[in-house]
Amino acid sequence: MGKEGGVYPMRISEKEDAGAKHVDLMLVANDETRHYCWVKNLSRLLTAQVSDHNGEAYFCRRCLNHFTRQEKLDQHIEYCGQKKAVKIEMPSEGSYISFQNHIRSMKVPFVVYADFECFTTKVQPEPAKSGVDRIMQMLEHFLELIKQKVEGGEPSEPHTKILQKHVPSGFCYHIKCFDETVYAKEPVIYTTQQEGEDVGQIFVDRLTKDIREIYQQNDFKKPMTMTEEDKIAFAEATKCFICDQELGEDRVRDHCHFTGKFRGAAHNDCNLNYRAPKFIPVIFHNLAGYDAHLFIKALGATEGKIDCIPNTEERYISFTKSVAVGSYKDKKGKMKTLYQHLRFIDSFKFMGASLQKLVESTPADAFTNMRREFGAKPMDPGLFKIGHFESENGRSITLREVIDREKLKHIVTHPEDYELGSRYIKGEKVDKDAQLTLLQDYLVRTNALGECPMRYYQRHGFGRYWTGEKIGLQNISRRIRHTLCADHMIDIDMKNAHPTLLSWYCHENGIECMGLDAYISDREGLIADLMAYEGINRDDAKTYLARHHQWEDRQTRA
What top-level branch of life does the organism fall under (predicted)? Predict the structure, then answer.
């Protein structure tokens, strides 16, 4: 029983075959006792809580929503069975839903894009074991199999065979400010100079130094400066630029605390809540699966608390590091340490594709940072595949053709000969330190400049979310600017629908949804939201859109 006397599922049987017999138990507990009761008829137990109707109701055991017919329940279970078992409470009739997280629509002032590159060193195999050792190993594995059979589950592999070790060879990070007049710095590039360097610790030290520098340069609010045009715009404004609702007597002037520029007229409450976050996102592509393992120990060993959102024991959705940037006196006169927070997030959770795929699907005019580094035409980060670095000791690397130092330098420094450079790279070994250094510099630059579709998400609050599902849903809601009556949302299957499908439902059935027509006509915006919400690449999003929404036909009809 829940805190308010309601019922919610605690455990659902995994054996949901149609012919299987289910026995429902209800756990009634207080501070002292716990007692199980047999539920003979689930409908009789729950119907009185949800309806005054005297007839039988058919309940879904996974979400405890009810239906008037068994056929409706069967249709619902087909979709609900794919989700976790949890009690879902729908809004009451007559209520409304609308976008409220206006604070999260503010662009994050500073973002760090980062990437590591590694050598792969072959691990020497263990020496052959004696006959007695092999027998003991087989016996241990046999006992492990018996234990797995008794406890249930799949037997684990007896050993993990380590074939190679990834040793960081360099890193690059680029601190991007929303306004380069506030803060601008060239990308930080580091490549190993000698064997045994702790590249992870060097990365942490340099990044924290730059974060302290950012804080010291912006540790004050700039006063507002208004031009004559700004004064006229404020006087003539009828809607809050933050929430897009009508302005009343509580209108105030909102300005940027970093530049002092007037942003628009706003409600007083909106103005007070519209603040820059107290953290700086640090973005890696595939952070959880790769880069985090290269520097997480060094990060944890430095001063400051580290918090994480774990996915498994070895993988993290995100982790946040507190960096000491200053101190202040509290009301009692005691000195307190002031912290800036670094929030490490994985862009792969927003765009589930490789960097090369993302580059291919990104318009050429989006590579502003790449053009600044390499010239008019961007270079392909996939030109040198991961795994081409073979060993740090031998300083060898696999290219597609033996090329000399001058030719390689020409490829890196003359992007106008990009096509020629692509043909140069083939598949032989080059044992030259200088060539390797050039390639290291090239790789860490191209992979860490943080472009591709990332610009879209930074414009819409990217950095305040941990996964693409959340930001995709928020962007759909924010861009539609809808106030949707809950009378059309009290159906559980409608709640389970993809938000873009829900928008189409409103469009096709004449349900008022402000801004919807403009939203569905923006195909690029739909594709970007689908990429984030579903965790798919651009091509899959376009296929999804064509299959589920029959885009061309609907666009013609609109």
Answer: Eukaryota
CB 429 within 8 A of CB 96: no
User: Residue 343 has what DSSP assignment?
Assistant: E
Task: Please count the other Cβ atoms lying within 10 Å of the Cβ belonging to residue 526.
Answer: 22
Determine which helix (DSSP H) or strand (DSSP E) holds 455, and give its type and residue range.
Answer: helix 454-459
Minimal CA–CA distance to 410: which of 400, 420, 401? 420
Mean pLDDT is highest, among 6-20, 381-395, 505-519, for 6-20
- State the CB neighbour count (10 A cutoff) for residue 23: 8
What DSSP element (H or E) covers 244? none
d(CA 398, CA 428): 6
Compute the distance between CA of residue 552 and CA of residue 521 in angstroms, rounded to an integer.
Answer: 11
DSSP 8-state class, residue 78: H
Cα angle vertex 312, ends 307, 313, to 5°? 70
- pLDDT class for 361, splitting at 50, 70, 90? low
343 CA to centre of own chain: 11
Q: What span, in angstroms and rounded, lies between the C-alpha atoms of 485 and 490?
A: 10
* Buried b / exposed e along 218-254 (16+ C-beta atoms within 10 A): beeeeebeeeeebeeebeeeeebbbbeeebeeebbbb
Domain boundaries, given as residue ranges, for the chain = 24-89, 228-273, 355-445, 467-557
Tell me the Ramachandran region of residue 286: left when phi exceeds 0, alpha when psi lies from -120 to 50, beta otherwise.
Answer: left
Distances (CA, A) of 402 to 217, 337, 397: 48, 55, 11
pLDDT > 90: percent of the chain = 10
Gap between the Cα atoms of 427 and 400, Å rounded:
3
DSSP 267-290: EHHHHHH----SEEEEEETTIIII
Cα 457 to Cα 451: distance, rounded to the nearest angstrom: 11
Residue pair 512/501 in contact (Cβ under 8 Å)? The answer is no
Distance of alpha carbon 472 from alpha carbon 45, whole angstroms: 38
Q: Measured between alpha carbons, how far is residue 364 from residues 177, 230, 361 in Å?
A: 21, 35, 9
Q: Which of 308-317, 319-328, 458-467 has the highest mean pLDDT?
A: 319-328
What average pLDDT score do residues 266-281 get? 88
Contact 311, 332 (CB under 8 A): no
Q: Is the pLDDT of residue 328 over 70?
A: yes
CA 10 distance to own-chain centroid: 29
